[in-house]
UniProtKB/TrEMBL annotation:
This is Type 1 glutamine amidotransferase. Keywords: Glutamine amidotransferase, Transferase. CDD domains: GATase1_PfpI_like. It comes from the Bacteria.
């Protein structure tokens, strides 16, 4: 089963973390939360979810994980200001490991300069940013690019997103 690194900080979109986390865990995968610092709790922007952070970014390496999950909300925009977090995400993309990004999650991949020539979807307000980063935007509930990058637009797309992230990990037998 896969060990999934989750880059997350305060102001994440609650359901965009809790729903995929549940789907991954039900499929037998381990979800590990990572922020700029460990040993703390964070809150979602809706105030519904409280998450204990498992590790700070300095305590982990991309090679310790099989896949990367980036929930949306304001969290990806906050995290992309930290070069350590950006480098962590970039390594998953350059190694072609599974990456799951929903809503504003792709903002972190834009900053990592990892989307040139890739197909993706995301929240409509970042469409131009994605296109400027060299990605081809698809206005679909879920898009899987090169059997590696799974993206969705918003909370209503979660059933399709969850299905595809679980399917991709099953296909890769992680």
């Amino acid at each position: 089963m896969a060990k999934v690194a989750t880059l997350i900080t305060d102001m994440f979109e609650d359901i965009e973390f809790t729903s995929p986390k549940e789907a991954l865990e039900e499929a037998g995968h381990t979800v590990v939360t990572i922020d700029t610092e460990g040993n703390k709790a964070i809150r979602g922007k809706q105030g519904e979810a409280r998450v204990e952070i498992d590790h700070g970014i300095d305590d982990v390496k991309p090679d310790d994980f099989d896949a990367l999950f980036i929930p949306g909300g304001f969290s990806p925009d906050i995290l992309r200001a930290d070069d350590r977090v950006v480098a962590f995400a970039k390594k998953f993309m350059s190694d072609m490991k599974p990456v799951f990004a929903i809503c504003h999650g792709p903002q972190l991949l834009i900053t990592a300069r990892s989307l040139d020539g890739r197909d993706i979807t995301g929240y409509k307000s970042i469409r131009v940013d994605l296109e400027n980063a060299g990605a081809k935007y698809h206005d679909e509930e879920v898009f899987v690019c090169q059997k590696q990058l799974v993206s969705s637009r918003e909370p209503k797309d979660l059933p399709a997103f969850n299905r595809e992230i679980v399917n991709l990990l099953k296909e890769k037998e992680l």
